Amino acid sequence: MNMKLDGLGKITGYRIYNAEQERRTKRNDLPELYPDLPDKTYDIIYADPPWDYGGKMQFDKSSKSAEKIDIGKNIFISAANFKYPTIKTKDMKKIPIHEIASDDCLLFMWVTNPHLAQGIELGQAWGFEYKTVAFVWDKMVHNPGQYTMSYCELCLVFKRGKIPRPRGARNVKQLVRTPRQAHSVKPMEVLRGIEEMFPTQSKIELFARNKVDGWDSWGLDVREEYE
């Protein structure tokens, strides 16, 4: 195997498995960044952005030198861009979400913990003011982290104008405890909680994987809806 030293004179798992990373990375097959947005406005926008990790992968022994790694073993655990095309925050800021937001509109946005600051920047770039954490999802299964073991993911809420009226339920709980499912799949309890709070408002899910009754959907996986 032809292996090159990195700038520090050390070969790591990232170098050895680069070819497989390239092969498994999902890419956007559209000529534009994303499909056109619908020609209407919404009171409630729910988004799960495809955060980009710069190609970073999670796998064991990745920091060891090449001679100490068993290259015959598939040591990959996961990478976001193996599951769907990810987008850098600077590019997501260019999507004109403000064009589909009503004068009084709420944006509920999922952020991964490493992207918390970028999430607030993205909401502001789309024309919203950050307000608070709307939901905390306890996945009931931990992930290894650099600091503490990660169990939770946050859904932030941003506001444009005023809170849409009429209001529905005001007793929806912030904490959602439900086991993690497939990669990036969010709990339906959060979407249903938003429906309870705002039952009559127009709603759209951005970066959607599937169509949900009562919601418009937008994203690569549901693009035929607007073709």
Can you describe this structure?
There is one protein chain. With 227 residues, the protein is α/β, with parallel strands linked by helices. The protein has one domain (32-52, 87-226): 3-Layer(aba) Sandwich (Rossmann fold), CATH 3.40.50.150. Helices cover 15% and strands 26% of the residues. It is built from five helices and nine strands. It has helices at 13-16, 18-24, 89-92, 116-125, 188-197; strands spanning 42-47, 58-59, 76-78, 101-111, 129-143, 150-160, 175-177, 203-206, 216-218. The strands form two sheets. It has a seven-stranded mixed β-sheet with strand order 7-5-6-4-1-8-9. Strands 2-3 form a two-stranded antiparallel ribbon. A hairpin with a 6-residue loop joins strand 5 (129-143) and strand 6 (150-160). The model is unreliable at 1-7, 23-31, 56-64 and 76-82 (pLDDT under 50).
Task: Give the structure's gist in a few sentences.
The protein has 227 residues and is α/β, with parallel strands linked by helices.
Key traits:
227 residues; alpha/beta; Rossmann fold; seven-stranded mixed sheet; two-stranded antiparallel ribbon; 5 helices; disordered N terminus
Which residue ranges are poorly predicted, with pLDDT under 50 across at least 5 consecutive positions? Answer: 1-7, 23-31, 56-64, 76-82
Radius of gyration, whole Å? 20 Å
The side-by-side strand order for the widest beta sheet comes to 7-5-6-4-1-8-9
The strand count comes to 9
* Named CATH architecture: 3-Layer(aba) Sandwich
Q: Sheet bearing the most strands, described?
A: 7 strands, mixed
Q: Termini, distance in Å?
A: 46 Å
Approximately what portion of the residues adopt beta-strand conformation? Answer: 25-35%
Give the fraction of residues assigned to helices.
Answer: 10-25%
Mean pLDDT across residues: 79
The CATH first-level class comes to: Alpha Beta
CATH fold label:
Rossmann fold
Helices and strands: which structural class?
alpha/beta
Q: Which descriptor suits the 3D outline?
A: globular
Number of helices: 5
How many structural domains can be distinguished in the coordinates? 1
Q: Tell me the series of helices and strands, N- to C-terminal.
A: HHEEEHEHEEEHEE
CATH fourth-tier homologous superfamily: Vaccinia Virus protein VP39
